[in-house]
Amino acid sequence: MKASDLMRTDGVTFAPDAPISHIARALRRLSITGAPVVAGDQVIGIVTEIDLIARHARPHAPRYLPLLDARIPLTGGREYREIIRRITGLTARDIMSTPAMTVDADADLEDVATLMVESKANPVPVLRDGKLVGIISHADLIAHLEEAAEPSAPGSG
After folding, report:
1. What is the pLDDT of residues 67-126, one digit of tens each?
2. CATH architecture of 3-149
3. pLDDT tens for residues 78-91?
4. DSSP reduced 3-state for 127
5. Nearest Cα to 11, choosing from 133, 114, 96, 130?
6. pTM
7. Where are the domains of the chain?
């Protein structure tokens, strides 16, 4: 079975400038764990519940700034700027995870499952020729496993 056989094509996407309040509301209202951030026809990242939670898990960011300042010489400021951007972010672009872990529409489901386990990616955008065509979540794979494990009805085999 291929990713294209299981993917959902009615998924939500966010523009890079989508406010985090809009993202949080959409994730909760639609009962989804995340969605791709798309610019033009390219997936540039993914915003998940974890990205939102991580942003709000640091309500006292200023007290950490002296600790982060000590790291500037080691990273040339790049890591510092990234941490500050995620702490204070207001839009999808600010808090999204990059790069988004994606799979090709022709990928085997075993490869999708392996990617999800190894990278903790959820959901996973599905691409065809570099363009978003669907999405697969943990729930989609679990539903597939449940269906595959169902015994055949008596007399149906």
Report:
1. 555 555 555 566 666 666 666 678 999 889 999 999 999 999 999 999 999 999 999 999
2. Roll (3.10)
3. 666 666 666 667 89
4. strand
5. 133
6. 0.77
7. 3-149
